[in-house]
Amino acid sequence: MSGDDNIFARLSPRTRTLAGMVLALSNLMVVLDLTIANVSVPHIAGNLGISADQGTWIITSYAVSEAICVPLTGWLAMRFGAVRMFTLSMIGFGLFSLLCGLSMTLGMLVVCRIGQGLCGGPIMPMSQTLLLRIFPPEARGRAMGLWAMTTLVGPALGPIVGGYISDNWSWHWIFFINLPIAALCIFAALALLRPVETHMVRVPIDKVGLFLLIFWIGCLQIMLDIGRDHDWFADPLIVTLGLLAIIGFVAFVIWELTEEHPVVDLRVFRHIGFSSGLFTMSLCYGAYFASIVVIPQWLQTSMGYTASWSGIVTAQTAMAALFTAPIAGFLLSRVDVRLMISGAVAWVGIMSLVRAHWTSDIDFGTMLIPQFLQGFALPFFFIPLTTLTLGSVLPRETASAAGLQNFVRTMAIAIATSLVLTEWGDSQRVARNAMANVLQPDQTQSVLSGVGLSSEQARQMISNLVEQEAIVIAVDHVFFLSAIILFVAALAVWIAPKPRASVDTSAAH
């Protein structure tokens, strides 16, 4: 941000309002794209002739590439200018959205999703930076409130919009709908934001650190994504990828701690409040996102739900969060944030335990209740955690800590997606084998044969019932593990000391 005193005078109130709405819209689009594909995975998998497990690469590839690009945002903004970088990112995001929609193979779709993530990564922090730049201090609260609402609304709209489009049009349109929004944001940025462009500064880039970051994350994510299909560490390829990820990570840590201009400033981990807060965040985001991934796939592949209805179930959590977000913001300076975070995370854990008792004959309304109730706690976790982590570092480290926080959050989502699908698949096999060992189908076959089914039809019906029950048992197992992780996170947050009273969260994104 430049030091020009008259920067706010360059834009009229009307221009500022329009620009603020455009920046909030751009943030909504990027957040929406993280969840819009979740409920569409079964449609995409069926259309491309791939398994549902392979279909989840569409989610993880976007999240990983976005996480890699986030640490570069500050350097890119200084090197090319904040407005110019925002505009270029929007152009790239729109282009890769078009290519995603035109994809006819999994390989092309994953590559284009990577491009989408690389271009989308800077949009979130850039939109926030520009909002702070165009509004004077006394108006920033309302502007950031609008921005924060899009961060909450995005995950709610994503499953609903994705489900409706997949059921009524085609999955290709979940990407095509980005095009008019991207075009509007590009032209609006060119027309409204040029007066607040930042100065370009030639700053060094940590090329070695960036290479090592991409290398170890790439090896880790590929290992997690293909491990299920390669019998994990029984396959030399998975072992090799695991070793390369470990070596790359160790080399990355050593290099970043000794580099003068690191791409990721790992030195902030010396603050126990930041470290424990980030540990809590990674556990919570991973456990929370597990349900966002598993529920739509279970409802569509086993329970006969359409993508639209599974999206409505998934979106209830974010819907409820909209009601309590203002309350969480009000209590932020009045209550110990550790108490807010711990209580909220424990509440989400209790709702996970409730969902761990779902059965194959559960009705729509029964599913909605814990989903909706869980959402009331989310703002009491998301909002105070930023205060806890950024309040634990030195003021000059706030920007680095905020970037690292966003990086870890996005990586937690990508890694959790891979791990939870692996655990879900393994639990299905265990449950199926356990039921097969104790099943006595002869009497059931006789009854089914008596109502006119052939022996083959009777066996197939019994097999389908076993499969359906094995899947729901595996879903319950995932929720039970999520609850344990959340309870651990609720305790871990108390490792952090109480943050200082005044915290600048403007660098958070």
Written description of the protein model:
Helix 4 runs parallel beside helix 7, helix 14 (272-301) packs antiparallel against helix 18 and helix 19 (398-438) packs antiparallel against helix 21 (455-492). This protein has helices at residues 13-35, 41-48, 52-55, 57-69, 73-80, 82-102, 106-120, 123-134, 140-168, 173-176, 178-192, 207-226, 236-258, 272-301, 307-331, 337-355, 364-375, 379-390, 398-438, 441-450, 455-492. With 509 residues, the protein is mainly alpha-helical. The protein is globular. The chain is built from 21 helices and no strands. The chain folds into three domains: 1-202, Up-down Bundle (Growth Hormone, Chain: A); 206-262; 281-509, Growth Hormone, Chain: A, CATH 1.20.1250.20.
